[in-house]
Amino acid sequence: MRRLCPILLVSAAFCAAGLPAAGQVADLRSHTEFRVCADPAAVPMSSQDGSGFENRLAVLFADELGMPLAYTWFPQGAGFIRKTLRAGICDVVIGYAQGDELVQNTNHYYTSAYGIVTRKDSPLAAVDMLEDPALKGKPIGVVAGTPPATNLARAGLAKDMKGWDLFVDRRVENPVGDMLAQVKSGELAAAVLWGPLAGPLVKQDPELQFTPLLKETTGPRMFYRITMGVRPGEDEWKRKLNSLIRRNQDKIDAILRDAGVPILDDYGKAPKP
């Protein structure tokens, strides 16, 4: 789960150039604008038209800081952090998986999980584990290189997987949209996708459902805590964002729920109350 797209940020590390010394890093942040690094086409998370839920979070934080919002747009993939955040042309990535070494993480502001998308009227609608024998022999969509692809293979479903590329420019390719369309048409029996990507899109389609994978017992974990990413060394900036997250958690949760993001507790075991 890393935007990335969060799915990229959760699933693979990017190559990165060296950073300036810690004493120099603090001087890179703007004190007149809330400068966000974002993918222009990572719908439903971020979009250049401002419709993504991360766009709404950026507006919330800019308002709380009393600063105008400014974006640096760049497709999330190889080089995203190096050419945006680390280049000093923007100051925060709104959605970034906890624990990645390319950024300094704020406190997490939500936890979500990969899940399985099926038609509501599908014989697989009750499936909530990738080891369920009902999945055997059924075509299943998944993004190659993501944690659920490993779990599907371990469950003996490698021959049933239909994979999409992990690193794509979503201005010209739409793997999540393609998978959901094929689930709806019946070409795929199911798709296994990152919740913040699939949940909002499934919410808009009455024929589909998203079931978080909360019962997996082997392989990579299926849930991830999502933070904001800043440059290493910018401790004061991180503390300011942590304070904003803490004071505005209810508003953040409301934005995420309104968008259809599946929000779990901090341990990825149950929906957040």
TrEMBL record:
Protein name, as recorded: Quinoprotein dehydrogenase-associated putative ABC transporter substrate-binding protein
Superkingdom of source: Bacteria
InterPro entries in the record: Quinoprotein_dehydrogenase, Solute-binding_3/MltF_N
Lineage: Bacteria, Pseudomonadati, Pseudomonadota, Alphaproteobacteria, Rhodobacterales
Organism of provenance: Paracoccus limosus
Every Solute-binding protein family 3/N-terminal domain range: 33-259
UniProt xrefs under SUPFAM superfamilies: Periplasmic binding protein-like II (SSF53850)
The UniProt record lists the keyword Signal: yes
Coiled-coil regions listed: none
Signal sequence extent: 1-21
